[in-house]
Fold this sequence. Notes:
With 83 residues, the protein is an all-beta fold. It has one domain. 0% of the residues lie in helices and 39% in strands. It has strands at 25-29, 36-40, 48-54, 61-68, 74-80. The strands form two sheets. Strands 3-4-5 form a three-stranded antiparallel β-sheet, with no helix packed on it. A hairpin with a 5-residue loop joins β4 and β5. It is elongated, with a radius of gyration of 16 Å. The N and C termini lie far apart (57 Å).
Amino acid sequence: MIDTPSEPDPAEDDLPDGDGTADSEALVVCPHCGAASEVGLDPGGGAQQQYVEDCQVCCRPWRVTVRYSAAGGADVSVEPLDG
Length: 83
């Protein structure tokens, strides 16, 4: 077997620097019903992310915005999808 160097993974460039631990969950408050819910985060998805998720209580959709700092901390906000 020949050992060849692997190509660098371009997705690794999006991972936050720091001690190797990045936030993987956050507590948010539904902008519709006010219920607190825990959302899972994907640090490998890039330093800035935006996606749609439904409230676990009222089932109405939110736009979730995640911004990772260089140290791996996540700033997470939610807003109504229709607003």
